[in-house]
Amino acid sequence: MTVNPALVDDPTVEVTGVSKWFGQKVAVSDVTCSFGPGLTGLLGPNGAGKTTLLRMLTGLTLPSQGEVLVKGVLPRAKVERYRDIGFVPEESALYNTLTARDYVAYAATLTGLSDPGAAADRALETVELTDDAGREVGGFSKGMRQRTKVAAALVHDPEILVLDEPLNGTDPVQRAHLIKLFADLSAHGRTVIVSSHVLQEVERMTDRVIAIVDGKLAAAGDISAIRRAMSDIPYRVMVECDKPRDLAAALLLHNDAVSSVNITRDLIHLETTDLAALGTAVARQARALDVRLSKFAPVDESLESVFRYLVGGR
Amino acid sequence: MSDRTGVVYDLGYKPYEGERLGRAGAIKAMIKDGLRRSFGIRRKARKKVYPWSMVSIALLPAIVFVGLAFAIGTLSPDAESPWGGHPQYIGLVGTIIILFVASAAPNLLIPDREDGVLAVYSSRPMTAWDYILGRVGALAGVASAFFLIGNIIMYIGFAALDDDGLASALIGNLDDFVKILLTMVAYVVGYGAPALLISTYAKRVGPAAGIYLAVIFLSAPFAEMFRALDFAGSRYGTLISLLQHPEVVRNWVFGESQSNTPLIAVGFEPWVSAVIIGIIGVATMYLMSRRYRREL
Domain of A69? Predict the structure, then answer.
């Protein structure tokens, strides 16, 4: 039985002690994890090393150290293995002068499909681009371009699907559709690895995440457990009002959730481990003291900040 | 109460169940894509203007040569056409090939690298060599088409005017066709390889085309300069003339005069140009493989 939450019992992709450096810059540092059938979210702030790790999973970038095996072999050592891999890169990776249908059919031909036109139609239907299949990709919105890339990655029916920020630029309806599609694929036994820097997106797709921060494995496993770990770290909140000293004093007197207070002009900077309780307390004290509130905002709730805390807290 | 029924169809993922082909299919697809891209096929009208203008300009001399040969043959059956045959046509079409290749090679290679499209190729069951063969094949196909179509029009046109009749002239002049093919290799490699090499390292299409045209066209005056200079080893400087190596091979193959070419004037044999074209071709493939093995 697996005890390390970064590893799965029936892996299709195995990452063992992988590091990658570009000159002096270490992009990925000693990461060990594995991926199996089902959907895994690869989380991390921008620049964390997600893209480098995904490129190593697909063999597009070779590790400086360590090993990545796809179904037991190094992907570049046996190029036929790419019949099992579908990859959506983060960069544009499209020919703007081709129609969506021609582009996806071309991708199908490169993978060796005998009937690329039919396969392209099927893949475009899957991402709901049939009506725009005859249009040039150069005229597409960012969301449509993303869906074209997903169609090209799906066209040869790969067992392993690696998607780098596939939901970037998609509208909420398209996003919901793609998330359902990824869930369907994983439910059919495909290994689906999706990277995102938006925590909520990943949360909607899967329970299993691998979190990368500064190139290192920061967290792995069940998403709710990682979220709980994150909420142990104090939030920093800024409150703007007309009587900052009165409000700050009242909050310190009556609220245990406040761990520190700093006042500059009409701003109060607070630290708390219970954001919801602090919100209630601020509202209650403001009403009691007749304080006029103009702003209440967490200043460090971005994923990047939270992950930085997570790593710093270790 | 009405007896209505309903059904919800599964619009989810539908897997591919057809046949799967090998890597040769991918290379063929790349060559086809390259030809389409170079000639603007299945692209907007403005993408077709430049390539098809070049095609028209390349074919026009061939049609004129055959037409004049027909006119002269009708008016004065014993007279030779003063406009010449294949070597003279090749001299004209060579410039068109340079101009076309200057645009086609950067457009085949640079957008793939700069727009991140290489990831599309490197995540497919194909090697760096497959990619290179696909792109080189496309450019060779484009340049060969430019070279061959006009020459074939002339070959058939001249055969049709021959006193022995079309069929026997086509067979009787086969040695001319072999010469055309040999010269074609020299032109396609001699002018195509430098364009590919520059496009392998350049980051933008426009500058790559400009650098290529400058290198090709300025190489001839530099060769002339080395011919005029008089110091030990200056004769080797005439070998830099990338413009003239295919022309030397053409004159050699067709038995034409070489006297005006700097590298011949300083004493080099014509086969030296053929060897240099071969070296340029091999070096280009080697350097492309080095570059793309890192990228793919």
Answer: 13-230
